Request: fold
Amino acid sequence: MAAVGKVSDADFEAQVLKADGPVVVDFWAEWCGPCRMIAPALDEIAGAMGDKVKIVKLNVDESPRTASKYGVMSIPTLMIFKGGEMASRQVGAAPKQKLQQWISTSV
Reply:
């Protein structure tokens, strides 16, 4: 069962941009209620999708450089990266079913 990982400014390139498969990045912060609300759904999706997709979280307070580079203006913002490029973006919290559908159709 896959788990949701963590990335930072320091390892974003290695963990996300140079990853073999698609990566979903959850830009979040500890104080963000909607971010905490979608966390269990992302955990379940990571478990259900297994090796098809890697899901990681990036704390915008701890890693502001990466969030700024990708124009994250509000959180939660989720992005799907494929082959080192951002392929899709979802801004705001959404129900698990909508998140899973977005991820499934984007990867």
In short: The chain has one domain: 5-106.
